[in-house]
Design brief:
By secondary structure, the protein is an alpha/beta fold. The protein contains twelve helices and 14 strands. 30% of the residues lie in helices and 21% in strands. Strand 6, helix 6 and strand 7 form a beta-alpha-beta unit.
Length: 335
C-alpha cells in the first residue's frame, strides 16, 4: 500500500479517515503495517504483504462459500501455479480455460469505452488474479484491486508477480463488494470483469458503487451472466461450480441499477463484434451491431454484453449504509 491510498480510503465501520503506521516498506510501498481510524472506537486493520485487510463484509454465506470453493479448487495441476502462465494473463488465459480466450480483448475494449485517463482513481472489483487491474494500471490510472481472496495465483497475492513482470503498480484491498471502504464520490471509474454475478447482494453492491463514484463517473462490466428469455429457455446444465456464481435476471439488474440512480447503456461485447465481422460483410455486420445496441432487449439474449452504468451530474448519493457503531476496537484479520 502507498500512502496515497488514504486519499480515497475510509474506515468501513464508521467512515472515519484512516492513519497509516508503516512497520516495513520497500522501494515500492508499505509492505507491513496497520491502519487506524480516527473514530470513537478506533478500529484497526492490518497491512500484510502490501494488501490492506479489511474483511468487514465476510460474514455473508455466499462470501464464505466462494472463498471455500476457490481455495479448494485452484490446486492439482502445476499449471495453475505456474508464474510463466499466470503473470501473462490474459494472453495465456485460454491455456488453462479455453472458454475465456475472449476475456482479455473484451476488457481492453471496455477500458477504451469508458476512456480511462491517466491519474483517474479506478476501482477494479472482483479482480481475482489481478490481470484486469494490471491492464488498467498500464493506462496510467491509479487502480485499486478489490477481492475477497488474498491467495497467490488466483487472488490479490498475484499482484507481486505482475509488478515484477510488467513494471506496474496497483493497490490491493481485501474486502467484499457489498462493503466498499471508500469515501463518497472518490472514484472516477469502477470495473467488473466476470465478477458482478458473484455478488452476495446485487442491490447493495450497486448502491455502494453509486455512493463512491464521482458525478459523471461510470461502472463498466463485461463477461457477466445475466438471465433473459434465451438464457431461461436454453438454460445451462448444472455444473460442478459450487462457489458464489449465480445468474441475476436482467429485469432485476435493470431495476436495481435504475433505483440506485444509474443511467444504463448496453453495447455489443468485443468478441461478438469480431465474430460478426468475420462472418458478415462489413456494412452488414455494422448494421447488426447498431441494431442490437438500439434494441437492448435483443442484445440481452446474447451470453454477454458490455454494460455501462453512468452516475449523471447532479445525481444525489443515497444515505450510506448504517455504520457498525456498536463494534469494539479490533484488529481486522483474515486467515
Amino acid at each position: 500500500m502507498k500512502p496515497d491510498l488514504l486519499e480515497v480510503l475510509q474506515c468501513p465501520h464508521c467512515a472515519s479517515p484512516l492513519t497509516l503506521t508503516d512497520d516495513e516498506h520497500d522501494e515500492r510501498e508499505v509492505r507491513q503495517g496497520h491502519l487506524s481510524c480516527n473514530g470513537r472506537l478506533r478500529h484497526f486493520f492490518e497491512i500484510k504483504d502490501g494488501i490492506v485487510h479489511l474483511c468487514t463484509g465476510f460474514d455473508h454465506d455466499l462470501v464464505k462459500k466462494e472463498l471455500a470453493y476457490e481455495n479448494s479448487t485452484y490446486h492439482g495441476s502445476p499449471r495453475l501455479t505456474d508464474p510463466a502462465i499466470i503473470s501473462q494473463f490474459p494472453r495465456t488465459l485460454a491455456e488453462l480455460w479455453p472458454h475465456t480466450a475472449h476475456f482479455g480483448p473484451d476488457f481492453a475494449a471496455l477500458i477504451d469505452r469508458i476512456k480511462v485517463r491517466e491519474g483517474d482513481w479506478v476501482l477494479d472489483i472482483g479482480t481475482g488474479p489481478c490481470w484486469s487491474s494490471r491492464l488498467l494500471a498500464q493506462r496510467g490510472a491509479r487502480v485499486v484491486a478489490l477481492d475477497i481472496n488474498e491467495a497467490n495465483f488466483y487472488g490479490l497475492g498475484t499482484a507481486d508477480m505482475l509488478f515484477a513482470a510488467h513494471d506496474v503498480y496497483f493497490e490491493r484491498v481485501l474486502e467484499s463488494m457489498t462493503h466498499l471502504p471508500f469515501a463518497d464520490s472518490s472514484m472516477d471509474r469502477i470495473t467488473f470483469n466476470a465478477s458482478f454475478h458473484h455478488t452476495p447482494d446485487h442491490k447493495q453492491t450497486l448502491k455502494e458503487c453509486f455512493r463512491v463514484l464521482k458525478p459523471e463517473g461510470a461502472i463498466a462490466m463485461v463477461n457477466e451472466e445475466f438471465g433473459s428469455l434465451r438464457q431461461t429457455v436454453f438454460a445451462k446444465k448444472e455444473g460442478s461450480d459450487t462457489g458464489s456464481h449465480h445468474q441475476i435476471p436482467y429485469a432485476d439488474f435493470d431495476a436495481a441499477a435504475r433505483q440506485a440512480g444509474f443511467q444504463i447503456d448496453f453495447f455489443v461485447a468485443d468478441h461478438v463484434r469480431q465474430k460478426l465481422r468475420q462472418k458478415l460483410p462489413a456494412l452488414l455486420s455494422s448494421w447488426v451491431v447498431g441494431a442490437l445496441e438500439t434494441v437492448p432487449g435483443a442484445l440481452k439474449q446474447l451470453n454477454s454484453a458490455l454494460i455501462i452504468l453512468t452516475k449523471e451530474e447532479g445525481a444525489k448519493t443515497p444515505p450510506p449504509r448504517p455504520a457498525a457503531a456498536a463494534r469494539e476496537p479490533s484488529m481486522s484479520t483474515h486467515e
